Amino acid sequence: MQNDKRRIAVGLSGGVDSAVAAALLKRAGYEVLAVTMQLGSGRISFDDKKCSACFGPGQAQEIDAARAAAAYLEIPHAVIPLADEFEDKVLGYYRREYLAGRTPNPCVVCNALIKFGALREAAAKTGFNCGLLATGHYARVDYDARQRLFLLRQGIDPAKDQSYFLHRLNQAQLAAIVFPLGDRLKRDVIAEAKRIGLPRVTEKKESRDFLQKDDHSFLFAGHPGRPGPILDTKGKRIGTHRGIIHYTIGQRSGLGGGAGRRYVKEIRAKNNTIVIGERNEILALQTSVRDINWIAKKPPAKEFAGLARLRYRQAGVHCQVTTENSGARVVFDEPQFAVTPGQAAVFYRGDEVLGGGWIVIP
To answer: N or C: which terminus of the chain has fewer CB atoms within 10 Å of its end residue's CB?
Structure first.
């Protein structure tokens, strides 16, 4: 990490990763300012006060943990209210996608529009104006002088790499981002937190999901969905679903006793219908991807071979990609289970993120 006296804002969540990132930057000579997003407005109520997700109850405890870490590190700290932006750009998107029969990926949208967008802009208005923004993400940013481009790369810890969620960042954003943990293993980050004695964060449970509740009906007040038919692939009705917002492609639970060992194959939002099929009927050899953000501002070629990750925890599948306008046609080397409209397909070349977009119906 380069020794630099520039000011840098660190997104401090109250967890171990962002706190260690702030500590490393301070040690490297940066003037570090800590900012914590306040995403809840009080308009949405939660019955559980403990938080183990990015959005949910326990926001006050998260802010207190971030404040305690900042005080221990002796760095200025500010809470940045972003509830309105989060409601509009993330929760609004989340609701629209489910009501349209797609499965959203709110973390991808939040990173591009809130964490590396609205947060920095809002922080500047509070006096925390910095040229750089750092977070505890496990990813790396390199500058390619030959191409005059910033490149997004995977973090070196394969179990923690978060580059999948960052594929929609643009060149301007990447130019102003620092990921201090990208070249570290998670176990080393934990050890560092204990070594420097960071308060509270070493015991805090990590947030892994957007919501910690299985039932997200409370986010759809006024539009909770209505029951409708569950059909098999031959059109025979075999049950009733409780609203399309509760289902995703490949799901087996919640289909009723008549479903047997079948999975959700299709969600037809226009006629409020779920179609289920055997596992082999949920396999897809190809799909389309729309609205692709290419990190280098353009694809590597009109046609190329690469590796695609269709969900965060997937190792990736080899494929052939044919670009078309702002999208692409993707043909997999092997059939893939539950290719899900609304989720992100992210393309890699080695450890480099080429870009990614949204999966549409195969």
So the answer is: N
3 state SS of 345:
strand
Token pair belonging to 160: 């923690």
User: Which is more confident, 206 or 104?
Assistant: 104
SS3 272: coil
Cβ-proximal residues to 33 (8 Å cutoff; 6+ apart), any chain: 7, 8, 9, 10, 75, 76, 77, 78, 123, 128, 130
Distance CA 291, CA 147 (A): 23
Rounded distance between C-alpha atoms, residue 211 and residue 303, angstroms: 37
- Contact present, 284 and 268 (Cβ < 8 Å): no
Q: Are 47 and 88 in contact (CB under 8 A)?
A: no
Query: What phi and psi values does residue 301 have, to the nearest 5 degrees?
Result: -170, 165
Cβ-contact 317, 306 below 8 angstroms: no
Report the mean per-residue pLDDT for the chain: 90
Is the confidence at residue 3, as pLDDT, over 50? no
Is the pLDDT at 235 greater than 80? The verdict is yes
pLDDT-derived band of residue 111, with 50, 70 and 90 as boundaries?
very high
d(Cα 320, Cα 262) in Å, to the nearest integer? 29
